[in-house]
Amino acid sequence: MATDRPAESERAQQTGTRSATVTRAAWISILCLTGAFHLFRGAPLDALIFFGGALVLTADALGWLGFVPLNRERRIRRVLIAVLMAVALLVLALAPLYGGVETVALVAIGIALMPVVWSQPGNPAPRARPDAVRRSAVAWSVVAVAGLAWEVGAYFMARPSPAAEYAFPPLSDLVDPFIASPIGRAVLIALWLLGGYALIRRGRST
């Protein structure tokens, strides 16, 4: 029995490695396809963002990317996160909608959070229960596929004429009236930041 444990452990490790490889390849492919679609619709900046994400994942898969783990006292870390969230909320709520300041702020938030959410060598993410991972994957997949179907369908249905574009608006046009005011934008950004923080804490605790 004892001699079988190393073999079982090695098989489990190989299975985990193959699963991680497939997952990385799937995400890289999705980001590349999304970037290609944005090029097709004439949005090179959006395409650059998705191609950049694919490039980062590829570099990480090849072992070219690494971050220094953030080992800080928990209370200090929470204070820093709260301050950063407050600053991000203020800047994004007051910045002109779809302007350069907003774009720079969003990119800066993403870059600043990468060392926090990226898995570290020698410090793997805690393992969640398989059933919990499966339910989460199904739920997020449904949301992603529904949003993708809406956006792609609206794009092609709206191409024939301005009237068709008005009849089949993308999601961004539907939320524009709500986020046109700083108050509405602040509410949406607060929900976005709190949701992201909840996901990070959930990932750290599972």
Give a concise summary:
This protein is mainly alpha-helical.
Strand-helix topology:
Layout: H1 4-40, H2 44-61, H3 74-94, H4 100-117, H5 130-158, H6 162-167, H7 171-179, H8 182-205
Helix pairs in contact: 1-2, 3-8
Give structural notes.
This protein has 206 residues and is mainly α. 79% of the residues lie in helices and 0% in strands. It has eight helices and no strands. Helix 3 packs antiparallel against helix 8. The longest helix is centred in the first third of the chain and has 37 residues, at 4-40. The radius of gyration is 21 Å and the shape is globular. The two termini are 30 Å apart.
Task: List descriptors.
mainly alpha, 206 residues, 8 helices
What portion of residues belong to β-strands? under 5%
Helix content: over 70%
Number of E-state strands: 0
H/E element sequence: HHHHHHHH
State the end-to-end CA separation. 30 Å
